[in-house]
Structures are given as C-alpha cells and as structure tokens.
Amino acid sequence: MDEDTSEGATPGGDGRESDPARGPSAPPRTDGGTERADEPTEDVALDPWGSASVGDYADLFAEFGIEAFDEVDDDVPDPHYLMRRGVIFGHREYDAVAEAMANDEPFAALSGFMPTGDPHIGHKLVFDEIIWHQQMGGDAFGLIADLEAHSARGMSWDEIDEHARNYLLSLLALGFDAEDGELYRQSDNRAVQDLGFELGSKANFSEFEAIYGFDGETNISHMQSVITQTADILYPQLVDEPKPTVIPVGPDQDPHVRLTRDLATRVRYFKVTEAFASFELDDEERQLVRAAYDALAAGSGDDGDGSDADVRCEDAAEWLADYEPPESDRESVDLAAAKSTALDKLRAGGKEPLRPRVRFFDRNATDEAFEALIEAVEGEKRVFEGHVDAFDLTRDEAESLAREVEIDHDGFGFRQPSSIYHRFMTGLTGGKMSSSVPASHISLLDDPEDGYDKVKAATTGGRDTAEEQRELGGEADECPVYELYAYLLAGDDDELTKEVYSECVNGERLCGGCKEQAAELMREFLEDHQEKREEAEELLDDLDIDLDSDRRGTGGEH
Ligand code: TRP
Ligand code: SF4
Questions:
Q1: pLDDT in tens, 414-440
Q2: 529 is in which domain, residue-wise?
Q3: 426 in ligand 1 pocket by Cβ < 6 Å?
Q4: Domain count, the chain
Q5: Which helix (H) or strand (E) holds 357?
Q6: pTM of the entire structure?
C-alpha cells in the first residue's frame, strides 16, 4: 500500500494516501498559554488524492471560506476534547448541528474511510468524532469507501475486504453503536448509488476538472467514486428526513464537501429569496433596498399593524441616491457598486409599489409540485411564470413550506451538509505522518510493544541537553509527543495535557520521562483497543455487511 497505486490520472498523485492523519501540523491549541507558532505559509491546496499539506491552517479560512471552529465552540453543549484543544480547527455551518444538538432536534454525523491500509491513530480522530456525535444523540454513519479505493487507488477487492474489516472492527471497538447507527460499504448500498446517479445529473466534467484537476486521462470510475461520495454525504438525509448533518474529515476533503453543498442546493425544487418588487435583487442590492424601505415605511406612518406602507420604487430611488452605506465594514465596497445597480432597478420600477415579500422560484419542480406550492401558500400571493410571491410569510416559514412540498412530491428537500475539520497529526519521526513510513505513525493493529517502542523513538521538541531543557524549557508546540497526549493519550483529561504542556515549557519535564509516560499510555491504549476489537468480532459478524465480496474485477495496480 505504500507505492502509488493510482493510475497517474489522479491529480497530484504522489503515492501517499489521502488519509486524515497526514501532513505537517501546527500544534494543537493548548491551555498552556502560549500562542501557536505558525509555520511559514506554503501554497494552500486541498487535494483529496494528493499530498494534503497544510502550511498554515489560517490560510484555509481566507482562501476557501472554511470558518474558524472557535466561533461555534460556545454553541456546542459539551464540546469534545478535540474541540476544546483546537484539534478540530475549522467548520462549515456547524452552527446548524450544534443548534440541533442543543435543542434535541434530529441531526446526523457521517464519515467515510478508504480501505487502503490499516486504520491508524489518525483515523481514530474521525472514529471518535462520529461516535461522540452518536452519543450526543445524532444518527451516526460510517462507511467504507471501497469504490473509491478500487477506482482511485487500484486496490483489489480482496485487499479491500481485509482492510474494510479492520476499519469496522476499530470503529466498533471504540464505541460505535451499530444497532443505532449504520455502517455500510459504498459498493453494497444501492440507495447511495441511486442518489449519486441523481446528483450526477447536476454536475458536469468541466466542474470536476476545475475542482479536482481531472482531465482526459482520468478514469471514469474515479469520477463515479466522487459522485458516490457526494451521495454518501447526503445519505443520512435520505434515510429518514432532511436534517443538519456533520461530516468530520481532514481539510483535504473540503472540495468534496463544497461540491456536495452545491449539489444539495441544485437538486432542490424551489429557491426561496426575498424581494421587494417584481424585479430581482442580489444580496447587496437587497440590503440597500431594505434600508430604503425601512426608512420610508417608518416615515409614512406604518404603525406596525401589518398593513404595508405606501412606498413606491421611485421614492426609494430618491432616498437611496443620497444614502451613504456605512464605510466601516468590508462589505462597503460591494455596497457602493450595488448602489448604482439598485438605483437603476428602482428607477425603472417607477410607480410600482415597494412591498417586502418572499419569492419562490421554480428550480426543478414538477408541474404538480409547483401547483401544490401555490396552493399551499397562505395569505396574499401573486403567481408569475416560474415564480410565486408570498406577502404574508416569513423567510423561515417559506423555507419550511418549500421543503415540505418538495418532499411530498418525491423531491429530496436536502439541507446543505455541515463539516468539521481536524488538524493532521505530525509524524512521530517529524514531518508528515505517512502510511508509507511505518515509524511515522502507529497503526491500531500495531503490537502494543511496537507502539511503545515507536513512541520511545519519536522526535521531540526537546533541547539538546537536559541542562538546556531545564533552562529554556521544551518546545511542546513543536513536539509530536505532546501531540500524542493532546490528540489521544490524555483522552478527556484536560489536566494531564495542561500539566505536560506547562511542565515542558517551564523546563520541569525532561523528554526521557515524558516519552516513557507516553509510551506506556500508548501500550495500554493499544492493548485495550485490541482486546475490544476481539470482542467486536462478534458484533461485526452479526451485522449485515458483506466482507467477503464476490465481485470480479481487476487485481489492482501495483
Ligand atoms: N474520500 C474519503 C477519503 O479519502 C472517503 C470518503 C468516501 C468519505 N465517502 C465519504 C469521507 C463521505 C467523508 C464522507 O478517505
Ligand atoms: Fe515533548 Fe515531552 Fe520533551 Fe516536552 S518534555 S519536548 S512534551 S517529549
């Protein structure tokens, strides 16, 4: 599994697996009080099959619109230690999941694993994330990305079967409740494949080219595995009902998340927007027109009794012409440009009354569904070709109605999936943790004694001599051993991570003893985990998962 088994069609295929635990990592946030030392900025690239190297996690925020996890942290009822320690550093729309969790509403978590080798401590992060969401009340899903492993990595079905078994055993051993949640392999899930087929009708090759660097040499099954992944991601909403869903992954998987968020929207029957008159407005224009409307409606004696104020487009144009958008925020540039287009629209509107409304566009609806929507809109409404305006619904009410009608008429009604991103672990030998360098990572199947030895042999952030270490303190932020404590060995025990960190940086802790302690904890963890794996054998056999696939195919490329 070490060499590049892909067929060269994979962009950036450099022979490394796209496992979640690769890549250099800035150290996790600690409570030890020092700022994270940021590494020099490299080119940011997120390539699911390439070398996921992230130089500076902060770049992912600006470059790709991933949001800092800090900002939703407070909304999470009882955050997992990976959240508390900044190992989970980014997210997309996780607030929706946190809110559902806090309000006891339905939500789900799903992630997938390519069975290209043994599961290791990097995968454990993701296993734990799924399991935690399950324990917090979510529907949990774990899947084996066997179609991807076969098509993008050239793994044979026999190899895949063996590895799949190992991933599932570890997931069960760590506490995944398979009675309550669902485990599946892509190749065996007909509903996922059907969903992928539907979603594929809304994606095209140019887009895959742009997102993944696919070209004329990319094999077709690899492309199919991508669309299968978008179906995986939406599957929890298909099983039962649309609901907030989190996908815990490494940031290299973000391109898949973004694509899926797009496709989830593209298959919707209706698009709901807010409008003020017959013409369309973009977000910035809408903000300005709303400002004009609010100012004029207040002045025209709208006493809040629900009746609309008598405001005309041309009045709003006049008001807006003299309006200076607030200069402070960074939106102001957009607003300045939007002002002139909004003015054009309002002037063209002339005497048309300006009235706030929600607008439902028919995007993909069947005729019956569109008729049913019109029927279902309560209060004053106006029907146009291709859209209907509703004057007495809030935006939220409109969204719910659109989803309800869609689902009643055989649509999916998907919500956009959310995601959380964890840092990649540093290799024990420094640099990237790589499946192809056994000493750099610890497999969940490693003999506990080997695990012990690997930790003992690990690179540290220690000084050259004990004397220097006492004087200057160690560099916990640069230390793979400290990372082991924070990501895994300390478990839920924040006191332990704090103690290791502060003792280290204060020079009270020397690397020999620190590694001994870590190595022992690692040995214990592996012993315990492997015992639980044995117990999980029975659980796994009871599940209806075919781990002895009789698929014919090519033997894989080596
Ligand atoms: N592409 C993922 C990987 O490389 C595996 C995967 C398949 C996945 N389907 C998924 C991950 C759905 C998250 C969600 O490991
Ligand atoms: Fe790393 Fe421990 Fe040494 Fe500090 S004392 S540098 S945490 S091994």
A1: 999 999 999 999 999 988 888 778 889
A2: 438-542
A3: no
A4: 3
A5: strand 357-362
A6: 0.88
